[in-house]
Specification:
Structural class: mainly alpha
Low-confidence stretches: none
Largest sheet: none
Number of helices: 6
Number of strands: 0
Distance between the termini: 33 Å
CATH superfamily: Formiminotetrahydrofolate cyclodeaminase monomer, up-and-down helical bundle
Strand content: under 5%
Number of domains: 1
CATH architecture: Up-down Bundle
Oligomer: single chain
């Protein structure tokens, strides 16, 4: 399998005792894998003369899948960096009690630690929606690949939403926390609606 060494290295990174990469990175990776599967289905179908009438639509869908996959890979890296930033700024805050700058820097990092997984969840929901469009025009021989993509995208969205919720208690800005919760809950509902169809 092409890339198996890279996948093994990624899994070893997840299994290491280091705190990052962790669940947020894994959630984004699940979404990226889902997008890659949809791109593959489009590519396979684009080779079939039986589906020639759908080639223009498939080309558009493949581009969207590739763009979402790239976005989610960026989120995978960003999530790990964001978590490490929270850890670093939390330590600085503990070491300088009463320092307003340290407290503000920590709060900013916590905000980012909710924004990044929320954006990951949003991208995963978009992949889940895209799967429905690919299923409508893609070759039926790849229907199992589309189903796996749906389940991976849903898992990625669920994991990312969980990461938003986990960070809520650490946010001192009640207004920001309420908006973050509302966004995450709306994405969870949208995911459930798409998965049920």
């Amino acid at each position: 399998m092409k890339g198996s060494d890279g996948l093994r290295a990624f899994c070893e990174d997840l299994a290491s005792p280091e705190p990052a990469p962790g669940g947020g990175t894994a959630s984004a990776a699940a979404g990226a894998m889902a997008a890659s599967l949809l791109s593959m289905v489009c590519g396979i179908t684009l080779k079939s003369k039986r589906h020639e009438a759908n080639w223009p639509a498939l080309g558009v869908l493949k581009n969207r899948a590739d763009e979402l996959g790239s976005l989610l890979l960026k989120h995978a890296d960003l999530d790990a960096m964001t978590y490490l930033e929270v850890v670093q700024r939390a330590r600085a805050k503990r070491e300088a009690p009463g320092d307003e700058k340290a407290a503000a820097a920590y709060e900013e990092a916590v905000h980012k630690a909710m924004d990044v997984p929320a954006s990951t969840a949003e991208a995963c929901v978009r992949v889940l929606s895209l799967a429905r469009e690919v299923a409508a025009v893609g070759t039926k021989s790849a229907s199992s690949d589309i189903e796996v993509a749906r389940l991976l995208a849903a898992a990625g969205a669920d994991g990312a939403v969980a990461n938003v919720m986990i960070n809520l208690p650490y946010c001192a800005d009640a207004s920001f926390a309420a908006r973050a919760r509302g966004r995450a809950e709306a994405l969870a509902r949208e995911k459930s609606g798409l998965l049920a169809r």
